[in-house]
From TrEMBL:
UniProt GO molecular function: phosphatase activity
Name assigned to this protein: SpoIIE family protein phosphatase
Entries under SUPFAM superfamilies matching the protein: CheY-like, PP2C-like
All residue ranges annotated as the Response regulatory domain in the record: 18-134
Protein species of origin: Paracoccus shanxieyensis
BP-aspect Gene Ontology terms: phosphorelay signal transduction system
Pfam families cross-referenced by the UniProt entry: Response_reg, SpoIIE
Length: 420
C-alpha cells in the first residue's frame, strides 16, 4: 500500500525516490515508513516476497529495504529475483537482519544485496545508509543518461554514415563513369584501362582520346591524398582531358585548321600553371602523358613524378622509360622533359600508379619496380584486360588482400600483324 507523504523533517533526496519496505511485521514497516517519509521518500509496503515482486513489476522501486527472515520466500531469495529482473536500471537493495556473522554478510552480497541494517534499526543509521545508496543511484542515473545520449549519438552517427556511404557509392559510380571506355583500338594498337580505388572513391585517373586520324593521347595520373578532395580534383582533370575537342587542353587546331595536339611537355606546363595560378590547392598530382602515332608506333611522353612507364618486348625483356620528373602543381617554373619511344610490333607499353609498386606485404616489404617487373614477366603471355586483372590478382596475393592505395594502369599493345 502507498502511505501519503508527510512533511520531511530532514533534507529530501536530490531526486524523487520510491522506497519499497518488505517485512512481515506491520509495526516494523510503519516505524520505518514514517522515518522515510519524513526524509522525503515515497514509500510502498509489502508483507512478503511474493507481494513485493508484484510491486516491483508494476512500480519498479529505486530502493528496497527487505527483512531477511520472512514466511515463504526469504529476503535472500527475493533479492536474487529482484536482481534477475533488473536489465535497464539499478535498484539499491538493503537487507534487514539480526545476523552479523561474516559468512552471512558474504551470502547476502552474493545474492545481490548492497548493504545491511541490523535490527533494531535506528533512524540515524537508516538515513546514513540511504545517503550512501543515494550516491550510487545518482552515479547510476548519470551513467544511464550518458548511455542514452551515447546511444542516440551513435544512432545519429550510423544514420549519417549510411547517408555518406550512399553518397560515396553514387560518387563511385560517377567517378568510374569518368573513364567512359575501358578498351579501345587505334590502328594495330589495343588500349586497355584499369582503375581500382582503395575506398569508394580515389584520386587516380586514366584515359585516352584521339588526336587525329593516326595519333592518340593517353594518360595516367595520381592526385595526392585520398578520399573526396582527391576525387574532386581528379574529376576536374578528367574534364580537362576529355575527348571533347573544345575543352581538352591537350588538343588544338594546327595552321591548316586540322586537329592537332600540344606536345606532352606543353600539356604538363599548362596543367602546372593551371594548378598553381587558378586552382590554388595544396594538392598536386603525378602523371604520365603520351602522344602515340599508332600508324608508325613512335611516340613522345612526359613522366611527371609518376612511376616509370615500362616497355616490354615480345621476348619478355623490360625497359623503364623516363627520368622521374617533378609532380604537377608543386613549383611554378617546373620543367618537364620529353622522352621518345617506339612500339614495334609485339611490344607493349605499361603505365601504372604507385598503388602497385608501393603495395606492402604483411612483413612491411614493398613490391617495388622489381616485383612489378617480375609479375609482368610471369604474365607476359596474357593480353589486354586479362593481363591487367592478373597483375591485380598477383598484387592482392602479395599484400594478403590488404590494399591501402588506389591502383590504376594504362596498357598499350601493338599487335604483330605478321602473327595475326
Amino acid at each position: 500500500m502507498m502511505i501519503p507523504n508527510a512533511h520531511p523533517a530532514s533534507p529530501s533526496p536530490a531526486v524523487w525516490r520510491l522506497v519499497l519496505l518488505v517485512d512481515d511485521s506491520r509495526a516494523q514497516r510503519r516505524t520505518l515508513a514514517v522515518q522515510l517519509m519524513r526524509a522525503g521518500y515515497d514509500v510502498l509496503e509489502a508483507a512478503n516476497a511474493d507481494e513485493a515482486m508484484q510491486i516491483c513489476i508494476e512500480r519498479r522501486p529505486d530502493i528496497v529495504i527487505s527483512d531477511w527472515m520472512m514466511p515463504g520466500r526469504s529476503g535472500l531469495e527475493f533479492c536474487r529475483r529482484f536482481r534477475d529482473m533488473q536489465a535497464d536500471r539499478y535498484g539499491y537493495f538493503i537487507l534487514l537482519t539480526s545476523r552479523n556473522e561474516k559468512k552471512d554478510v558474504a551470502e547476502g552480497l552474493r545474492a545481490g544485496a548492497d548493504d545491511f541494517l541490523t535490527k533494531p534499526v535506528s533512524g540515524a543509521e537508516l538515513l546514513a545508509r540511504l545517503s550512501a545508496g543515494e550516491r550510487i543511484l545518482r552515479m547510476e542515473d548519470s551513467l544511464r543518461l550518458a548511455n542514452s545520449q551515447l546511444k542516440q549519438t551513435l544512432t545519429q552517427l550510423r544514420e549519417t554514415q549510411a547517408a555518406i556511404d550512399r553518397d560515396l557509392r553514387e560518387a563511385q559510380r560517377l567517378q568510374q563513369g569518368l573513364v567512359r571506355e575501358r578498351n579501345g583500338r587505334f590502328g594495330d594498337c589495343d588500349l586497355s584501362l584499369l582503375m581500382r580505388p582503395a575506398g569508394h572513391i580515389g584520386g587516380d585517373l586514366v584515359g585516352f582520346f584521339p588526336i587525329n586520324e593516326h595519333r592518340v593521347g593517353l594518360f595516367g595520373l595520381d592526385v595526392s591524398g585520398h578520399g573526396v578532395a582527391a576525387a574532386l580534383l581528379s574529376a576536374r582533370l578528367a574534364a580537362l582531358l576529355s575527348g571533347d575537342k573544345e575543352h581538352n587542353i591537350a588538343l588544338r587546331l594546327n595552321d591548316q585548321g586540322q586537329s592537332d595536339a600540344r606536345s606532352p611537355a606543353q600539356v604538363m606546363r599548362h596543367l602546372n600553371k593551371l594548378m598553381i595560378d587558378e586552382l590554388r590547392t595544396d594538392a598536386y598530382f603525378t602523371m604520365v602523358y603520351a602522344d602515340l602515332d599508332f600508324a608508325t608506333g613512335t611516340g613522345r611522353l612526359v613522366q611527371a613524378g609518376h612511376p616509370h612507364p615500362v616497355l616490354q618486348r615480345p621476348d619478355g625483356s623490360l625497359h623503364l622509360l623516363g627520368k622521374g620528373g617533378m609532380p604537377v602543381g608543386l613549383f611554378a617554373n617546373a620543367e618537364f622533359d620529353e622522352v621518345e619511344f617506339t612500339l614495334a610490333p609485339g611490344d607493349r607499353l605499361f603505365i601504372s600508379s604507385d598503388g602497385l609498386t608501393d603495395s606492402e606485404n604483411p612483413r612491411g616489404e614493398t613490391l617495388g619496380d622489381e616485383g612489378l617487373q617480375a609479375i609482368m614477366r610471369t604474365n607476359a603471355m596474357l593480353r589486354g584486360s586479362a593481363l591487367l586483372e592478373s597483375i591485380c590478382w598477383s598484387v592482392a596475393n602479395f599484400t594478403a588482400g590488404k590494399r591501402k592505395d588506389d591502383i590504376s594502369a594504362v596498357l598499350v599493345e601493338r599487335n604483330d600483324i605478321r602473327q595475326d
